[in-house]
From TrEMBL:
Protein name, entry field: FadR family transcriptional regulator
Pfam families: FCD, GntR
Domain named HTH gntR-type: residues: 9-77
Entry-linked InterPro entries: GntR_C (IPR011711), TF_FadR/GntR_C (IPR008920), Tscrpt_reg_HTH_GntR (IPR000524), WH-like_DNA-bd_sf (IPR036388), WH_DNA-bd_sf (IPR036390)
Listed GO MF terms: DNA binding; DNA-binding transcription factor activity
Tagged with keyword Ion transport: no
Amino acid sequence: MPPPRKKHRTLAQGVVEHITGSIQQGVLKPGDKLPTESAIMEQHGVSRTVVREAISHLQAAGWAQTRHGIGTFVIERSNAGLAINAESIVTVMDVLAMLELRISMEAEAAWLAAARRSEAQVAELAKVLGAMQRSVARGSPAVDADVQFHLLIAQATGNRYFVDILSQLGTTIIPRARVNMPQLGHDDPAAYLERVNREHEDIFNAILRKDPEAARAAMRTHLSNSRERLRQAQQQLESNGA
């Protein structure tokens, strides 16, 4: 039976976590062939597009390798990653510290993505951005789409380590998945989401026109704004509690 899907997790992430879990538990070993796309689709109840996205994540993170005409195989990983414990990111100060890390890392990822992205990758970004815009219009926090947006940018760098780190962090990379940002800042939720959405649009547009410097600046602005909004909310919270 397919594993239960947790809240705030994309379908592709669910497939990735199930397969990596099987590898870590020794059910799948280096050299083993992964099930066919059709078998994974049936097991998880997902589309072929979702399966291919999951396989792409596994390849980027160094878990698997596809041999054309033969199949996808588990490969030996020389390093299991930085092993950042996402569950340890629980307080406002933890989220602020994570944003500091992300500013330096993802600003460079955006630069690389704008320089290296393919037409297919920018098309996927456009679809996810559209999903975020529709969620914002409904007043939804759009955490899943936000995570996917940043993961797609990491993928577009062509550097699997960006994907590896963000995949480990999951939804913890999105501050509102850990803390109620509008409530902390006494902000209107709709206005807050609209501002965040505009920032994502700026990042996307820079990547679309292959402008690395603008993409880096837009990502830095987006994450710095998130940090500043959260920092001000934290200060207000401390002041009220004094």
